[in-house]
Amino acid sequence: MSNFAVEHVKRVRSVVQNRMAREPADSGGGITQSWIRCLNDYQLDPDSHDDPEVVGRAELQQRQDSLADLRSVAEVEMANLYQQLAGSGYAIMLTDRDGVLLNFFGDPSFTHAASKTGLMQGAIWSERVQGTNGMGTCLVERRPISVHQEEHYLSRNIGLSCAAAPIFNHSGELVAVLDASGESRLAQQHTLALVSASVQMIENRVFLHQFRNEYIVRFHSRPEFVGTLSEGAIAVTVTGRVVAATRRALLLLGFHSPAEIEGRDITDLFNISFSGLVDCSVKKAFHPVPIFEIRNGARFFAVSYAPAPVLREARQPAQAAAPAAGAATALDLLQFGDPPMLHNVQIAKRVVERNVAVMLLGETGTGKEMFAQALHRSGSRADKPFVAINCASIPEALIESELFGYTSGAFTGARKDGQCGKILQANGGTLFLDEIGDMPVALQTRLLRVLEEREVLPLGGDAPVKLDIRLISATHCDLQARIALKQFREDLFYRLHGVTITLPPLRARTDRQQLIRHLAMQESDGDGNVVIDGPLLAALDQHQWPGNIRQLRHLLRTMIALRETDLLTIADLPPEFGAAAAAATVATVATAATAPEVDLNPLENAERHALIQELTRHSWNISTLARQLKISRNTLYRKVQRLNIINPDKAMLH
Ligand SMILES: Nc1ncnc2c1ncn2[C@@H]1O[C@H](COP(=O)(O)OP(=O)(O)OP(=O)(O)O)[C@@H](O)[C@H]1O
């Protein structure tokens, strides 16, 4: 036995024998109790050199199969975690509830040493077999725990540092453990936080997958946190009865066990009917709506997502409109596991070959045009034209000729040989009408006629041309509100809304980190050498992204172009990013007309509200508004600062 091992064994025995004597240098408590269990209950020899216990191949397979759903979600997160810890010699592992190691994701520098210790698939890492260790002790303690080097019970494990966190299912049962182990001598707090965040992500995603056939209500006390790791999620039947809730949901609502919430009606929890919440969510394009919790009156912001019927049908063997193999790729590349995006892609795949008008909704930069292009490229029209027209950017007087074209001499100034309109340019292919909400009403009437008759008559022409187009339109404005104001034709609205797909804002996407890596890869021309380190990834992940994916892409492009080495870190962020991040958070709150971040009295709040409205009306031009209000620019600036008003555009990094 080496001196190290002799010392270790002595220490274990002495600590256990004098229970209350010196505590070992453990970081989170629980280590002494674990040593006591190992020596007294399991009667383990701290210097045991028995071979690690490993289950047979058939048993491993059966254990893996029984956690198939969880493992498929966990594998993505394990890969993420591994990348976050890359280079620090860690392996990422998943065990089942008995401590059997199901998945192993190893750093090459560590894999060999790891297998000698027994860190390999099939090995049993319960406390009873391996003594005090991250995975086994976590299973007993049912909480995140780190076990650092000499805190291990068996002397053969004292080279290891482990950080492990338990994974619970929605019924509160501990079903697995996620662990990062390595031979690092560094403290484990940071690793433990990363492992715990990954577990939270796994639990949330398993929940969303498991209850994909129910409505999901996602909520938080702050609107910008809906869709993030810290949100609560409740699965609800179509009649508004709670089927299950995440751990975070229980915590946010002050329940202690799933049984306290399951079976309740949503109206027992919040001051809104379920159908009311569903309607509001759709109307507000899935922006969180303010609601109050019944028991304590706490305010939350919530969104309700409808179940994904397509996913249900996708499991049927013969699919009517299965997209071609290559077709799936363009759409599939738009998402990396975010449930609403996955749902969107599934819907899109279903209509690829069907001539159904598609309406894309979503904030600016969420990828509406990209989605339209992917849809086009995925079908049999892929080699035909994709013609995009932005109805907001063409002068009103030109839209008609742009869209419908004209014949020679149709009007003064017309080109001699006439012009083929965009609609006809798209013939055989796809026409993408962006910002359709900005189309003048007269033209809407003409467009409607074209869509109904499926033929176009260019200006000045006498023979209509037969039309065969796939129509995709997009808008970020509330078309229902425009209909109410008679600014949008209701019949056209229904023509365009064959299928409506709502693209989530980037801040609500749960696959942000994968998307960030994907964009970084694209922006470095597929050069896999560019790596984003953990802290930078976390900073980008937590940013509010008012400009959505467009803003993210531009930021990465800049950072990659200016990089000094291939490892991108926080230091590569442009200086304005920090300020912008803070501003964006406040701006989101401000523009949502929710409470400002500073303490204001009701009068000041009213002044703030009025000022935001005026500033928006004047496109945030301080000089113009100051003139209008007959006060100096300085006075206006001071007001803006005192009332904590932030121009949302200033938070964007275009
Ligand atoms: N899923 C995605 N994967 C990779 N890049 C994306 C994705 N979605 C959008 N982008 C990128 O984000 C940027 C903005 O996308 P796009 O123009 O499609 O957004 P949009 O919603 O149509 O914006 P707007 O409403 O302002 O017209 C583009 O650079 C696009 O490449």
TrEMBL record:
Pfam families (alphabetical) = AAA_lid_14, GAF, HTH_8, Sigma54_activat
The Gene Ontology terms for molecular function here are:
ATP binding; sequence-specific DNA binding
Q: Which CDD domains match?
A: AAA
Keyword list, A-Z: ATP-binding, DNA-binding, Nucleotide-binding, Transcription, Transcription regulation
* GO BP field: regulation of DNA-templated transcription
Database matches in InterPro entries? AAA+_ATPase, AAA_lid_NorR, GAF, GAF-like_dom_sf, Homeodomain-like_sf, HTH_Fis, P-loop_NTPase, Sigma_54_int
Supply the name of the protein: Sigma-54-dependent Fis family transcriptional regulator
Q: Which organism is it from?
A: Massilia eurypsychrophila
Q: What is the lineage of its organism?
A: Bacteria, Pseudomonadati, Pseudomonadota, Betaproteobacteria, Burkholderiales
